[in-house]
Amino acid sequence: MGSGFRVRCILAWSLRGCEHEEEASVEEEVVEAMDPKPEIEDSCKPRCVKQLISYEACVKRIEEDENGQKHCTGQYFDYWGCIDQCAAPKLFRKIV
Amino acid sequence: MAGGRALLSGPRSWCELLLARRFGIQNEKRNVTLCSQNGRWMTENSLPKRSSQSQDQRSTLSNIAALVGAGAMGMLGLAGFAHADEAEHGLQAPSYPWSHSGWFSSYDHASIRRGHQVYKEVCAACHAMSLVTYRDLIGVAYTEAEVKALASEIEVEDGPNDAGEMFMRPGKPSDHLQAPYANEQAARAANGGAYPPDLSLICKARHNGQNYIFSLLMGYRDAPAGISVRQGLHYNPYFIGGAIAMPKVINDGQVEYDDGTPASASQIAKDVVTYLSWAAEPEADERKLIGAKWILGACIALFQAGYFKRWKWAPYKSRRIIWDVVN
Fold it and tell me: What's the CA gap between B101 and A35, in Å, rounded?
C-alpha cells in the first residue's frame, strides 16, 4: 500500500499536493463512521409509497403555477412523518 | 301515598336511586311499609314510579339535543383547521427509544460524557449552558480530577481584589459553564439577529424535548416544492415555521470520541441529546428510585386502607332490614 501509494502521489503531484494523499491514507486506518440513518430511511421508503406518490403529484400540480403561493408542505410532512415513524424504532439499534 | 316517603328495602346507593328514577327501571314487587305525614302506617304494594310521560319526552329531547350539539362542536372544530398550519406547528418528532425513558431506567452515563464532549467542541461556540456548573459533572460524566482539569481550561473574571480591580483567574469546579457571548444582544449580533438559546433546560423547554432536539439536529433536508427560505436561513421541517437560522452542524466524524466510539452523525446527535436531557433533569435517576419506593409504598398503604375501610363498614353493609305487614 505504502510504496504504490507514493508512486501514485508523485504522478498526481502535478495536479494537487501530496499531503492530501497521505492524509487520506491515515484516515482510512480510522474506522469511518457511516451514519445508519439514511440507509434506514431508504429501507422505509417502500412503506410510504402512497405518501410519496401524493407528494410527487402535488409537485407536478404546482409546477405550472408560478405565483409562488402554492406549496406541498402537507404532502411532504405526510411522507416524512411516515418515514420517521418507520425509522425511529430501528435507528438506535445501530448506534451505541 | 301523598306526602309519604317510600322507604325502599335494602341499602341503596344514591346513584342506583338516580338511575332507577331516571330510566324508570322496574323493580320487583315489594311490600313496603310507608310512614305517612299524619303518623299512620300504611301498606302498599308499590313499585318505584316510572317517570311520567312528559318527563320522559323532555329528557329524551334533551339527550338528543346534547348529542347533536356535541357533534356540531366536533365538526366545527375540525373544519377550523387550515392546512397551512402544518409548517406553523412543525413536523411532529417521532418517539425514539431512549435508553433512559421508563420508570426504572437510568441515564447512559457514558453517553452523557460523550455528549458533553460534543457540546464543548461543537455547540459551545454559539450556545450557552449557564445553569450547569462543572461540579455537576462530577460523578455523572467525569471524576473530580477530570472536572478540575476541565474547569481550569477556562478563564473567569473574579471579584475586586484588594486594589479594587477585577481580575481573571482559571476556572474552578464551582464555576458555571462559560457562555460564548456576554449577553443576548451580543449573541444576536454575531448570529444574524437570531439568538442561540441557552441549552441548560432546552429538553424541558420544548414540547417532546428529547425527540424534538434529536429530530431537529438530524432533520436538515431539502425544502418541499414551493417553499423557499431566505438567504441565511435553512429549511428544517421540525422547526416551527420551517426556517431555522442554525445550519446543519452535526456530520459524520465531526467529533473524535475519547472512548473510540464511531462518531456517526446519529451517534453524535444521540449523545448530545442525552447530555442535554441530563442537564435539564439531573435528578432523574434519583427521582425514579424515590418514585419506585414511594409508589410501591402507596400501593401497599392503599390496599391496607381499603381493607380497613371494608372491615369497619362490614356490619353496616351486611345488615338486613325486615319489613312486616301491619294489620
Answer: 23
- Reading chain B (327 residues) residue by residue, the pLDDT tens digits are 444 444 444 445 665 566 556 655 444 444 444 444 444 444 444 444 554 555 555 556 666 655 665 555 544 444 333 345 678 889 999 999 999 999 999 999 999 999 999 999 999 999 999 999 999 999 999 999 999 999 999 999 998 999 999 999 999 999 999 999 999 999 999 999 999 999 999 999 999 999 999 999 999 999 999 899 999 999 999 999 999 999 999 999 999 999 999 999 999 999 999 999 999 999 999 999 999 999 999 999 999 999 999 999 999 999 999 888 887
Q: Are B244 and B126 in contact (CB under 8 A)?
A: no
Chain A closest-CA separation from residue B177 CA (Å): 27
Nearest residue in A to B241, CA atom: A73
Question: If contacts are CB pairs under 8 Å, which of residues 1-30 in chain A contact chain B?
Answer: none
Residues on chain B touching A58 (C-beta within 8 angstroms): 225
Distance CA B236, CA B250 (A): 14
B92 touches chain A (CB under 8 A): yes
CA distance B73 to chain A (A): 25
Q: Which three cell numbers stand for residue B221?
A: 433536508
d(CA B204, CA B81): 28
CB contact under 8 A, B227 and A88: no
Torsion angle defined by CA atoms of residues B281, B287, B292 and B293, in that order, rounded to the nearest 10 degrees:
180
Give B121→chain A minimum CA distance, Å: 18
Q: What is the 3-state secondary structure (H, E, C) of B136-187?
A: HHECCCECHHHHHHHHCCCEEEECCCCCCCCEEEECCCCCECCCCCCCHHHH
Q: Hey, are the CB atoms on B97 and A84 less than 8 Å from each other?
A: no
Judged by a CB distance cut-off of 8 A, whether residue B230 touches chain A is no
HEC string of B71-123?
HHHHHHHHHCCCCCHHHHHCCCCCCCCCCCCCCCCCCCHHHHHHHHHHHHHHH
**Contact in structure between A48 and A80 (CB atoms under 8 Å):** no
ipTM of the modeled complex:
0.70
